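Listing S7. Sequence submitted for prediction.
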Amino acid sequence: MTLAPGLRSQLLIMVEMEDTAKKIGSGDVPVLATPRLLALAEAATVQAVEKHLAPDETSVGTRVELEHLAASPLGTHVQIGVELTEVDGRRLVFAFEAHDRHAVVGRGTIERVVVDRAKFMARARRAASR
């Protein structure tokens, strides 16, 4: 694992109906849903680290802080940028910010932990079978 603070990644999306609170069920308006904003930020963190992990490793989310600051209606382009700010063993901390042409849409932090994929899935299956 060769991860160090400063590693960055970004995603750019256009808000479509499937991204909205109305479609996801987190509200009844056609604007970018908070759960979708979080999913996009997490996807950017995964994208940032994927080339730096061993083939048998993956990362899993463990903690999130999110402020959703502005509504993004259908057709709005939203850019989500993440930066790895802390590496503590297998624990990774990312800062993220999402913005459109006019405003910061959201920001926060995401913590992930690097795990062995097979061992993680074996533990998850054991826990589910109890």
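Caption to Listing S7: primary sequence and predicted structure tokens for the chain studied. The chain has three helices and five strands. The mean pLDDT is 96.
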